[in-house]
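Lab notebook, bench 4. Still working through the backlog of constructs that have no structural model yet. Next entry is a single chain of 166 residues. Request: give me the structure tokens for it.
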Amino acid sequence: MIKREIPKNIEAEEAVLGSILINQETIYGVSELLDIEDFYRKSHRTIFKVMLDLNTTKKAIDIITLTDYLTHISKLEEVGDIAFITSLANKVPSTANLKHYINIVKEKSMLRNIVHIAEYMENMGYDSESIDTPETVLDKAEQLLSKLTKKLVTTKVNNIKEQTLN
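Model written out:
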């Protein structure tokens, strides 16, 4: 069996985070379209969560406030260091392509979720000791796929709304 790499785009994730650092107002649009779990890297999820926390408490979102908060909660070393945070802002010259970065991150997240659902079904199918019946496994898979489909529809509706407003 060929082991394939899980869908992700680290550069797009970094571009989203960097865009927020260079223009904190973008947090509003990003937070409507992306969830913390949409980021593949744990460090990116942590940084995005801190950005959301800073925004919720009406604090500035920039390199200084972000690194200060990460230091305060003892997470700066976990996500990298101040040089890494600074590099996020330096990787993105402007927020002009932010929508594209968001779409890439969202698409990769959806694909990862599909892979996880397929792995769940595969594992349950091979688990002959499972107390689950085939119907139970299929019901659970349907629930997971339905939840993912709703998320996809919501994303498409948000994209349509965004396009009609521009």
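Notes after review: The mean pLDDT is 89. Helices lie at 10-22, 27-33, 42-56, 63-72, 76-79, 82-90, 98-126, 134-165. Flag for follow-up if needed.
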